[in-house]
Amino acid sequence: MTGTKIFAHAGEGAWTPTPDGNRRRVLLHTDELMMVEFGFDKGGVGALHSHPHVQASYVAEGRFEVTIDGRTETMETGSSFIVPSNLIHGVKALEAGRLVDSFAPHRADFID
After folding, report:
1. pTM for the model
2. Strand locations in 6-53 (E)
3. 35, 30, 33, 36: which is closest to 1 by C-alpha?
4. What is the tens place of the pLDDT at every residue in 80-105?
């Protein structure tokens, strides 16, 4: 475990713009698991996409329209959802908000 960051404090980490106009910051990661915070302005869209990683998401703030494999639900602060590997999914921010996503294994494309 030597050298692996296992604690993250509020406000740590720099926000990085995402290709779809939102922002993210990697909170923590190991080879097996990663936590990433995403910030959205009202109307912001996380475009439909898929990836081999299993994703678990927690709505830390705001309301989102979440689509997974063609099914859409409105999720609000305190709600959560899981995206199984390779399913097409995306979100739309109905108000400004934040999602905290966990990915297994980690998303190498998110690491500098």
Report:
1. 0.93
2. 16-17, 23-29, 34-40, 45-49
3. 30
4. 999 999 999 999 999 999 999 999 99
